[in-house]
């Protein structure tokens, strides 16, 4: 990556990070652009989850860690009578 592109990516990254709700938990806080690029290379591409679709279900094995960048998720649990709470 050229120095110019690194500077542009740094500005973009700073703008995105400043709006992120989990920036305090972010792995890339304090990383150099080189290290951030390395981290980005091993993180899978973002996924889009359609409205109403489940990201995971209770009892599913832990396979991923998710960070919601846009929108929100509703957490529900089914009661004994089948209602979602």
From TrEMBL:
Entry-linked InterPro entries: cNMP-bd_dom_sf (IPR018490), RmlC-like_jellyroll (IPR014710)
Origin superkingdom: Bacteria
Protein name: Transcriptional regulator, Crp/Fnr family
């Amino acid at each position: 990556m050229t120095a110019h592109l690194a500077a542009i990516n740094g500005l973009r990254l700073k703008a995105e990070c400043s709006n992120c709700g989990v920036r305090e938990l972010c792995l890339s806080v304090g990383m150099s652009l080189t290290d951030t690029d390395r981290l980005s290379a091993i993180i899978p591409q973002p996924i889009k989850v359609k409205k109403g679709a489940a990201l995971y279900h209770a009892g599913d094995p832990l396979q991923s860690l998710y960070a919601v960048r846009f929108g929100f998720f509703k957490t529900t649990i089914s009661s004994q009578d089948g209602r979602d709470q």
